[in-house]
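tool=predict chain=A
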Amino acid sequence: MSGHKKRMKCEPKWAYAVDNGWQDFAEEDAALIEKLYQGKTKVVATTDLSFNKKHKSIYEFDFKKMTQTNKDSNNKRKIKRIDPTDMSDDSDDDSDEESDDEPKFIWEHQDNFGVWVALYEEDNDLVESFYQKKSKSNNTFVTKDLTFNKGYNSLYTFNFAKMTQMNHDSGKIRNIRRSKNAPKAWNVKNYGVKKESKKALADMKLSGNVLDSPSTWTPAKNPGGCDLVPVASSSKEYKRVLEPFFKTIGGKPTIKSLTRIQNYQLWPFYALNRDKIERKNKGVGGANEMFLFHGTRVKANMDCIVNAGFDTRVAANGLCGTGTYFAVNASYSDSGYVYRHPDGSKEMLVCRVLVGRYAVKQGNDRRPPPLDPKKPNGGLYDSVVDNTGNPIMHVVFYDHQAIPEYIIHYK
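tool=predict ok
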């Protein structure tokens, strides 16, 4: 009997780069890419990827540069081949090899609210390539080839001496930085609704229709959990939800789907808080419920919001404090904050937000300012904004002051 173990045949895997690492291709797609890879041509195109069946976009694979490009959108991603026969049992060597493949530096710009926003991968690679070519006599580069600039054709100058980015059409100058802070999934331990909150809700006895769910919701299939319900494109609801999206997104995106989020666990907490703010602000605006836009770059984080709501413990720190930021205009969320699929399509949340009475706030506080500055321990505003005249951003500091209600999937 041989002393050697029989080797099982392991097919190579293929993966594509995402914001926070690498994602494996589906098995059937990996098999197709491997077949193309084994051919004599180093640059080859196909429409036969599983996620592309409805769209029939042309995907070009460059096995010399190890990139995948959607020829319709020009979105480009890095790819890599993972050959099981080349994998070492030395975990240290394996982790070193992985780190060589991953982008070493991330480029970010600082938005109007002081939040650092990472560029999408192809923009990141473009800026990094010019940064590598800079010299003492030439610290700037000019380009129109940024993904968020398609349809606008504005000229952008990146100044690596001052670490700024300038839009020549608007004259807007933003700070930029080069770091290793790639967008990551949150630590979701104890994320979302707390057990003591659930018990308190169960013990409450309410009268009236405070907890009534929205009239658009359909009968629950997953009581106590969450249902994702497609919204028919012929419905009034579909038109009502998408009207402000189209008015404020810029350009003419195609809607792939609109999905209603029916979260039966989150709704009672939101409804109670709405009633509380409504009574507190009786005669001065009430709960002031708004439908606003929100995005997150990492899919796992988006799933957390859909299933467990917002959690201020992972909130961003910006010029309006450490809270959850919601945009009045869809174009703001679209400009680098939303999750993007491999085919270039994106997902954005439409949320109910209880803005109540709001005030302008600057600083890194974790709560709104007092209604009366002379009484800092008295009543507080309900939320803060960038300006009270025509706000483009609303910020809340309490978990149950907002609830995700729709997912817009668009391209």
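Helices lie at 27-38, 91-101, 121-133, 195-203, 236-249, 267-280, 299-308, 330-334. Residues 174 and 235 are 41 Å apart (CA to CA).
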